[in-house]
């Protein structure tokens, strides 16, 4: 290791060999850089001393009697030190956070108490992302927080608890941001809880900007006046806090404050002893309208049964979930439900899109054959581009011709109480009409104003973007958007924008066959992904596609054909019928 340090100014540099950061003190060396403050070494020394002097032991409600500093006090003091330093960093100062909040940059909220009352199980689940703990040490250090959050959500969790304390629990506020992004666009998504040792409004505002729907307030570690102040501040940001208690005195404080959600920690934070009966003993002190959550120590179904009998509303589970080999199966066994009942797997064959349609006759034949989507090219200069007059005729035919063999009754099915996959939702609820096929207008690198104009003029049901248009355009177009990608393109699986990605081999209608191996690799990486598949499809190779993607065919929502149903450059009505029949037959 080679280093350089300026004599007067706070400038220090270290050149690492690749393996140096893996040494025992590598992390400490990096932290030393992060803690530097001021412009000179003299200022740095003064500011460091001030930060340490501000990190006093926790003031509490008088429940902690040990003479020795317990773990709660240690964590509290450390958090005060780090938050004090963080507040001095430009872009992270309180005024910076407030300015961002005033610009309405915080993600949309959902009601934490209301979401807790929605569950596919008798008890709601608060599923925790927990890499480590003071009592158990490392639990699962390599866990990817957003990936774990999606697993929890689709398994029926009502809340995702994200630990953001870095030293003892190995979490961060970045975990919370990533979790919130992973849940974006998910119908009936879980609430997001910032599980943290909160003592300052700064942490609550930071949580809100990161995407939290609620924060944890621990009665044991806060003076009553501070607790009330933080509780009201959290409510002012739209977040109903989870108020944690451990005994009768703390429960009385929480109830008197008007807490709507109270968590009873079965673990005594002073000595870390776990008593699973703590929650049940305190239930008689809680108003009926208050949601009570059992926190800590829950490892299996036998721990949950007493809570189901005593009127507990939710359980928080962390370590047991993090160690589970099959998370969804563990949750269903823990809470007495069924994985299949919370998430239905689609058994339907793919829907069909006939693209490059150039006549009302071909459009009508396709709809009567059972096609679900009729595509028209609106890119000037392309050989399949249609005139405005023809496009209007096709639009009229599609919207007046009854859809053959419609099974769109599923369109009216109520949404489940648990979260659902974004692309399953868009496929079932945004890309179906109960009476007629949908008209798709295909555009490529054209102005947004032109797309909006054509959508309105032609009464397009769907807009398909086949160029380098920004993904965000999907939010600006008033109908669902299908966007073309090649396998491996960035943004393909982004949730919350395009209703479905189109995976194609190249320019639309080229006849170039898509690489099924690449498609399968893409689908296997993301089980929640659904796609429209195009590229060299025709009536003869549909069976090959079903065989090549056998284990992933449920992820193919639509098969899209253009040149594969043409003869001598013109659409063949017989080939259109053959293609639709082959797809609907599943071979």
From TrEMBL:
The N-(5'phosphoribosyl) anthranilate isomerase (PRAI) domain, residue ranges: 417-581
Key words, A-Z: Amino-acid biosynthesis, Aromatic amino acid biosynthesis, Decarboxylase, Glutamine amidotransferase, Isomerase, Lyase, Multifunctional enzyme, Tryptophan biosynthesis
Catalytic reactions on record: 1-(2-carboxyphenylamino)-1-deoxy-D-ribulose 5-phosphate + H(+) = (1S,2R)-1-C-(indol-3-yl)glycerol 3-phosphate + CO2 + H2O; N-(5-phospho-beta-D-ribosyl)anthranilate = 1-(2-carboxyphenylamino)-1-deoxy-D-ribulose 5-phosphate; chorismate + L-glutamine = anthranilate + pyruvate + L-glutamate + H(+)
Pfam entry (one): GATase
Domain of life: Eukaryota
Coiled coil spans: none
EC code: 4.1.1.48, 4.1.3.27, 5.3.1.24
Segments forming domain Indole-3-glycerol phosphate synthase: 72-334
Domain Glutamine amidotransferase: 1-35
GO MF, any single term: indole-3-glycerol-phosphate synthase activity
Biological-process GO terms, alphabetical: L-tryptophan biosynthetic process
Recorded metabolic or biological pathway in which this protein acts: Amino-acid biosynthesis; L-tryptophan biosynthesis; L-tryptophan from chorismate: step 4/5; Amino-acid biosynthesis; L-tryptophan biosynthesis; L-tryptophan from chorismate: step 3/5; Amino-acid biosynthesis; L-tryptophan biosynthesis; L-tryptophan from chorismate: step 1/5
SUPFAM superfamilies, sorted: Class I glutamine amidotransferase-like, Ribulose-phoshate binding barrel
Record flagged with keyword Glycoprotein: no
The protein's role, per its UniProt record: Trifunctional enzyme bearing the Gln amidotransferase (GATase) domain of anthranilate synthase, indole-glycerolphosphate synthase, and phosphoribosylanthranilate isomerase activities.
The protein's name in its UniProt record: Multifunctional tryptophan biosynthesis protein
Organism in which the protein naturally occurs: Aureobasidium melanogenum (Aureobasidium pullulans var. melanogenum)
């Amino acid at each position: 290791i080679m280093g350089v340090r300026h004599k007067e100014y706070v400038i220090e540099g270290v050149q690492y060999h690749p393996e140096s950061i893996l040494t025992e003190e590598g992390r400490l060396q990096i932290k030393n850089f992060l803690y530097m403050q001021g412009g000179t070494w003299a200022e740095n020394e003064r500011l460091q001393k001030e930060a340490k002097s501000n990190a006093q032991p926790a003031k509490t409600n008088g429940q902690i009697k040990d003479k020795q500093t317990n773990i709660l006090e240690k964590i509290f003091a450390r958090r005060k030190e780090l938050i004090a330093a963080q507040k001095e960093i430009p872009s992270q100062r309180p005024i910076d956070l407030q300015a961002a909040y005033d610009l309405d940059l915080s993600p949309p909220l959902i009601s934490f108490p209301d979401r807790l009352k929605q569950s596919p199980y008798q008890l709601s689940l608060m599923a925790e992302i927990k890499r480590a703990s003071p009592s158990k040490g490392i639990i699962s250090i390599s866990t990817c927080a957003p990936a774990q959050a999606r697993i929890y959500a689709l398994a029926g969790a009502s809340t995702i608890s994200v630990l953001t304390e870095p030293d003892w629990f190995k979490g961060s506020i970045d975990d919370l941001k990533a979790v919130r992004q992973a849940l974006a666009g998910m119908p009936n998504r879980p609430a997001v809880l910032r599980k943290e040792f909160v003592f300052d409004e700064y942490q609550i505002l930071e949580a809100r900007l990161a995407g939290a729907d609620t924060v944890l307030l621990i009665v044991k570690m806060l003076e009553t006046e501070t607790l009330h102040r933080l509780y009201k501040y959290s409510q002012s940001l739209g977040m109903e806090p989870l108020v944690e208690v451990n005994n009768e005195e703390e429960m009385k404080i929480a109830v008197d404050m008007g807490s709507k959600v109270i968590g009873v920690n079965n673990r005594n934070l002073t000595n870390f002893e776990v008593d699973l009966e703590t929650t049940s003993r305190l239930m008689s002190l809680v108003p009926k309208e208050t949601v009570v959550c059992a926190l800590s120590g829950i490892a299996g179904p036998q721990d949950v049964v007493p809570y189901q009998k005593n009127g507990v509303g939710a359980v928080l589970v962390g370590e047991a979930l993090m160690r589970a080999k099959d998370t969804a199966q563990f949750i269903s066994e823990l809470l007495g439900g069924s994985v299949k009942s919370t998430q239905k797997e689609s058994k339907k064959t793919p829907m069909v899109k006939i693209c490059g349609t150039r006549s009302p006759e071909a459009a009508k034949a396709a709809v009567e054959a059972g096609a679900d989507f009729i595509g028209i090219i609106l890119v000037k200069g392309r050989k399949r581009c249609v005139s405005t007059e023809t496009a209007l005729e096709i639009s009229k035919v599609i919207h007046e011709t009854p859809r053959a063999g419609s099974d769109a009754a599923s369109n009216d099915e109520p949404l489940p109480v648990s979260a659902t996959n974004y692309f399953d939702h868009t496929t079932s609820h945004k890309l179906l009409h109960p009476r007629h096929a949908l008209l798709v207008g295909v555009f490529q690198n054209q102005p947004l104003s032109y797309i909006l104009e054509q959508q309105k003029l032609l009464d397009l049901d769907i807009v398909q973007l086949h160029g380098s248009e920004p993904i965000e355009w999907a939010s600006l177009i008033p109908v669902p958007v299908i966007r073309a990608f090649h396998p491996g393109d960035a943004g393909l699986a982004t949730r919350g924008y395009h209703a479905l990605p189109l995976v194609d081999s190249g320019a639309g209608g080229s006849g170039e066959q898509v690489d099924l191996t690449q498609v399968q690799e893409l689908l296997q990486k993301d089980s929640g992904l659904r796609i429209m598949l195009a590229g060299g499809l025709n009536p003869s190779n549909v069976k090959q596609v079903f065989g090549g993607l056998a284990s992933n065919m449920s992820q193919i929502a639509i098969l899209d054909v253009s040149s594969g149903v043409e003869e001598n450059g013109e659409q063949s009505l017989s080939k259109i019928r053959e293609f639709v029949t082959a797809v609907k037959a599943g071979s």
